Structures are given as C-alpha cells and as structure tokens.
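Justification of computing resources. Each target in the renewal requires a structure prediction run like the one illustrated here; the chain below, 399 residues long, is used simply to show the kind of job we budget for.
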Amino acid sequence: MNILVTGSAGFVGRNLVENLKNIRDGKNRTRPGLSIDKIFEYDLDSTPEELDAYCRDADFVFNLAGVNRPKDPAEFRAGNFGFASVLLETLKKHGNTCPIMLSSSIQATLQGRFGTSEYGLSKKAGEDLFFNYAGETGARVLVYRFPNLVGKWVRPNYNSAVGTFCNNIANDLPITVNDPSVELELLFIDDLVEEMFDALEGKEHHCEFDGIDTVLTENGKYCACPATHKATLGYIVECLHTFRDQPKTLVMPAIPDGSFEKKLYSMYLSYLPKEKVAFDLKMNCDDRGSFTELLKTVDHGQFSVNVSKPGITKGQHWHNSKWEFFIVVSGHGLIQERRIGSDEILEFEVSGERIQAVHMLPGYTHNIINLSDTENLVTLMWANEIFNPNKPDTFGESV
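Resulting structure tokens:
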C-alpha cells in the first residue's frame, strides 16, 4: 500500500508519518493486517509535479494540509478549500478513486460560538467538496471533525492552549488562565494515529453531530476518534503543576491506563528542557552506606534504594501493617525475619547474580546483612505505603 500524507510537516502529519514508518519498517507489529510500501510526504516545500505523481500512485490519502492561523482570513479558504480542490482534481485526472481522509474541525459544525468562524466556514466548504467528490466518483471519503488536538510536538504559543501551558510550566514561564472553568474537549495525537490506522484497515468509527457534540453511530456521515477527553483549564493547569513538582515531591499521581492524566503527563514531559531531564535525589548517607527514596505513588506505596557497605547490618525493625519487598540487585547478602514473640528465624541468602523479591512480612522484625568483605550490597526496596513520619509504623527490635 502506498500512502500519501499532505501537510506531512505539520503536527498531525509528522506524528502520523513517523508512526506509518514504524509499521512499514516492522518496528510496530500491532497491525499485522497493514502492509505499507511507500509513504509520500507532501507539504509546502513540495512541487506540483510531486503531487501529480503521488496522486497517481497512492492507495490511500490522508489530507491533513490546511491553514489555521493566517495573517489574512481570506487565506482560510485558499488553504482549506483551494488546495483540497487541487488534490481532488489531480486524483480525478489519474482516475484514482482510492480512499481519502479529510482533517476537518469541530468548528465546521458552525454551531454556538463557531457560528461566524471564518476557519469553520472554510472547513465546512472543504467537507462539502469532499462529499460531492464521493458522490461523483464513488470514492470512500472519511471526513473527521477533530476537537482540540494535543500531544507531543504541539507547537506552543500558536493554536493550542494546552501546548502553551505544557511548554511554559515545564520551562518556568508564566501562564494566563482567564477562566479556569472553561472546558475543553481534547484528542491526544497517539489516539488519533490509532484511529488513522483503523481507517487504513477499513475500521474507522462513524458519527453524527448534535450541535458540537459527537454522537457515535455505525452509519454516520462523519468519522470520529472515540478516545477524547474533557477537562477544564483549571484542572489541566493543576495537573501540570503536579507533574512539574514531581522531582521535588517524588510523588507520582494516579495515571491509570488510558486516562487523561496519563496522556497529559506524557505530553508535558515532551517539553522538558535538557536541564530538567535529569534531577538529583536526596541520598541519606552515613558510615553504614546510604538510603535514597526514588519514587512515591498516590496509592501504591514507594520505591527506594538501599546501599549497605561491607559487613553492615541494616533494618532490625518491624511493622504492624506495612509490608515491603527487598530486591538485591548487586552484591551478596542475607535477609533475616523473625515473627514477634517467636524464636524461629527465616533466612534468605540473596545475590545480584540471582535477583529475587523477598517479602518483609507484617509482624516480623527483619534485617539485611551484607556478607561481602569488599563489595557494597545494593537493594531495591518497595513499601506498600508512603512513609509517614507522624505514623511511621516502624518499631526497632533485633532479629
């Protein structure tokens, strides 16, 4: 399959092209039904001759070319309608009725605040052109009305408030939020790309519109990506400040699979400057070695790393309800556990040569001993709760 992507240097185009390459080159094997041969990238620097050749040989067209921030409103129609006309006429010239996707906008509904949008009017004109083309040629036409598009590589201080917020907060620049209660409908780029793959496989999602609201329906005139999220500007900024503070607090917020928060966090990280990509952790050092908290989570405890010098014993305490994993990743050691009130000792010889996870059982006093005379013992530790100095649930007692 040969695929033509117009607007290939733009935000959506760049993400789509790079992911099409992953499938073409066998790096992404999640779509075994897709076989991609050539990817034709068309953008402002391309020539009419290239477009002609691409339209002749394409088996699927993604039309992502368009104008969204012109100096003159008249450029909306030229960019969003004029080029579409050229594209469709070139396909007709070659008798190529391959499927074609159009990137439109929710503003094309011309409902509510979009009723007088020059951008929306130009997008609506482009939609009508495509639907007429489908009627004339019988080609499969997929018209997507996208909401606010966000994700890695969104250009800040351009046409995405979320992109601007991510960039500015990551780089310690000021932001302005006039009304925190304003709600946005957001479509993350990685979800959009998956929908484009669905379209290539003939499994696109269809919809109709109730005002500006997308209503998924099997036989809808339009197409849509079902994985959108709604969030207020205030909540978006709150999340971004939490992400920014993570290197200081070490707290990782809840980011369930598929959640808005997980996707926004990934987007935020893509704006980090080099000096923030790496950050120091506080090492608590003494003559026995060191103990360093690595990561804390809202509801799944915390991770730490413990370094014990040769011959050193650490621990010698127990917990009522707290429990832990000790995972030795380097060195040679012995873990001992004894149930409170009992003389029986459980012993586990551990080594970085055979990595195991050992439970520190509630109600058992425990320790870890470095058996080496020359090498440090390095242990990754996980506790089921964040350490609370006001309620440590930790009581000293030798094994």
